[in-house]
């Protein structure tokens, strides 16, 4: 079917709604975080901050990148692990028998890296996982920077000297922040992999057909 047959919102409804939900959740996090941070400052007798100051604070930067970091790690690992590993009966897994997979390509313009061949094709063939790994590294750096700034601000409020970034990176607090997010993301992926074996959601591409047997692997 030609894209021109459908309105822009219909063709892009999923991404538009997800973007709206993301913006709303980020705004809610910012509002709640600002109030919580100012309450913490007030309790310690320090002046409160404005919205603009809060957006530059370690409290906001750390909390935001900490969560993005775990999301990109989740998706990057999921993309890589589903290349070679299988889960019998799961809609999230490739077929157990590669011969059963339908790799038909719909008509359309072939991406230029494929036409170019060589290293460009190799990079393009792995570009999804590479992009997620790069996003993970960038958000990991953002999380560590924000968390370091926030810890030094808290130490200043307590009358303690600041610490270097390397020292903070090796602290238990920093890795607690990371691991608590990582474990929840891996649990989320595991849940959809296993629950999709036995449960269904009509018309969802993440689910097997309602009539499909539990042992069927792949959507």
Map the helices and strands.
Blueprint: H1 8-11, H2 13-43, H3 51-55, H4 58-84, H5 112-116, H6 118-125, H7 127-157, H8 165-169, H9 172-198
Helix pairs in contact: 4-7, 4-9
**Using only CA atoms, what is the Rg?**
23 Å
Query: What fraction of the residues are assigned to beta strands by DSSP?
Result: under 5%
Query: What sequence of helices (H) and strands (E) makes up the elements?
Result: HHHHHHHHH
- Separation of the first and last Cα atoms: 22 Å
Mean pLDDT: 91
The total beta strand count reads 0
- The DSSP helix count reads 9
Main beta sheet: strand number and arrangement?
A: none
Structural class: mainly alpha
- Outline, from the CA principal axes? elongated
Question: Which key terms come to mind for this protein?
Answer:
single chain, 219 residues, mainly alpha
Summarize the structure in short.
With 219 residues, the protein is mainly alpha-helical. The chain has helices at 8-11, 13-43, 51-55, 58-84, 112-116, 118-125, 127-157, 165-169, 172-198. Helix 4 packs antiparallel against helix 7 (127-157) and helix 4 packs across helix 9.
């Amino acid at each position: 079917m030609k894209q021109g047959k459908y309105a822009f919102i219909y063709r892009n409804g999923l991404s538009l709604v997800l973007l709206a939900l993301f913006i709303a959740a980020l705004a809610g996090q910012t509002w709640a975080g600002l109030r919580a941070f100012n309450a913490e400052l007030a309790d310690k007798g320090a002046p409160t901050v404005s919205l603009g100051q809060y957006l530059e604070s370690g409290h906001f930067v750390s909390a935001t990148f900490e969560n993005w970091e775990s999301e990109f790690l989740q998706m990057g690992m999921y993309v890589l692990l589903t290349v070679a590993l299988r889960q019998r009966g799961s809609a999230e897994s490739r077929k157990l028998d590669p011969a059963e997979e339908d790799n038909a390509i719909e008509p359309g313009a072939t991406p230029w890296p494929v036409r170019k061949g060589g290293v460009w094709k190799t990079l393009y063939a792995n570009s999804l996982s590479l992009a997620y790994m790069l996003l993970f590294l960038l958000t990991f750096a953002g999380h560590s920077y924000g968390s370091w700034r926030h810890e030094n601000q808290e130490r200043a409020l307590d009358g303690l000297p600041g610490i270097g970034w390397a020292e903070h990176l090796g602290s238990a607090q920093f890795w607690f922040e990371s691991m608590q997010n990582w474990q929840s993301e891996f649990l989320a992926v595991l849940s959809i992999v296993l629950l999709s074996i036995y449960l269904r959601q009509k018309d969802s591409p993440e689910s097997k057909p309602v009539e499909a047997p539990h042992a069927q692997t792949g959507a």
